[in-house]
Specification:
Layout (H helix, E strand, L loop, with lengths): L3 E2 L9 E2 L5 E5 L6 E5 L1 H14 L15 E3 H12 L3 E5 L9 H12 L8 H5 L8 H6 L3 H6 L1
Parallel strand pairs: 1-4, 3-6
Antiparallel strand pairs: 2-3, 4-5
């Protein structure tokens, strides 16, 4: 089962505050943990592990992500790779409970993506390490992306 796509963050943009710093706002706690996966680069490594590893045979649960990353850590990584001061701010949940994005983030905050299960067994079967979110973030020109 794939983790939260790293490319989802390509569509998110912090906003510039009146104080000159940047703020990333979502309707979720800064401590919400996401198992972020660069699907384009790394999902095949998990498929390969399922095919080649006897430990990950039929009926195995493969959680495809190298690590859990909190939303606070996401903005810290963004700050480091862009040189900008970026803070996280939790937005109140929208009144429209039909909003799927709000429901998804609230679910992840309350129950956890993969229900907070350990990713270790899925990592142990890999032939090579997968890319962390910090590594993914270093490969993106966020400033150019955010200008668009």
């Amino acid at each position: 089962m794939p983790g939260y796509y790293a490319t989802n963050f390509l569509g998110m943009k912090p906003r510039l505050s009146a104080h000159g710093d940047w703020i990333m706002s979502l309707p979720a706690s800064e401590s919400t943990k996401l198992p972020i996966l660069n699907t384009e680069r790394d999902f095949g490594a998990y498929v390969r592990a399922v095919i080649e590893s006897p430990k990950l045979g039929a009926g195995s649960e493969v959680l495809a992500a190298p690590a859990y990353v909190t939303l606070q850590e996401v903005v810290q990584i963004w700050s480091k790779v862009t040189g900008l001061t970026i803070r996280y701010k939790e937005l109140p949940a929208a009144q429209d409970h039909g909003n799927e994005r709000v429901q998804m983030l609230q679910f992840f905050g309350e129950f956890g993506y993969f229900a907070g299960k350990d990713l270790g067994l899925s990592q142990a079967g890999l032939a090579a390490p997968t890319q962390t979110f910090a590594e993914f973030a270093r490969d993106v020109d966020w400033l150019q992306l955010w200008e668009e």
